[in-house]
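Issue 218. Parser rejects a valid record. Input:
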Amino acid sequence: MNNLPYQLLKQNIANHIEFSETEFEKYSRLFHLKKVAKKDYILRQGAICKFEGFVTKGCFRVLTHDRDGNEHVLYFAIQDWWITDIDSFTNQIPSFLSIQALEDSEVLLINKVDKDLSYEQFPKVEKLFRIMTQKTIVAMQRRLLRKQSQTADERYSYFLNQYPEIANKLTNRQLASYLGISHEFLSKIRKKLVSKKQ
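Output the parser choked on:
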């Protein structure tokens, strides 16, 4: 077993709850490591999401397509982030989301049966996922408020400052899709910022 991904998982969990070595050893056995090649999907819109994943390497995008085929990125996930379609995973219904690797990536996956089992075996895990769910809701709420109250220029600057390690991995189109603007408009914003610095 490649131990590094599991060490990353252990560190992530330690940020939220205290787990003994024995508890982590047993809990980590519920996960399996999956390598995902660049551009491959681990979830496609319309399928049922059967996992929650902890990213140990690379970068993923979580996106959806509307009726007209337009792409909308919900979020990006790099090392030390969690990915899933929580609605599809929890309720076992077809997903509105797709999850695609933007580069060669690795992710530790836990399925629904094992996650539910972990709640019984390790009561602390419920606290872990409650904390992570709360943080996710806060992040989504803040993003929604930024979208309603900030200009595209301000949202772009915020993303660059907050997530520089993600921004470096993205194409103009991918970032524009996340910001909810056209890539042509994003190019204008970038040119405007460059001219201000000169």
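Fixed in the parser; the record now loads. Residues 59 and 78 are 4 Å apart (CA to CA).
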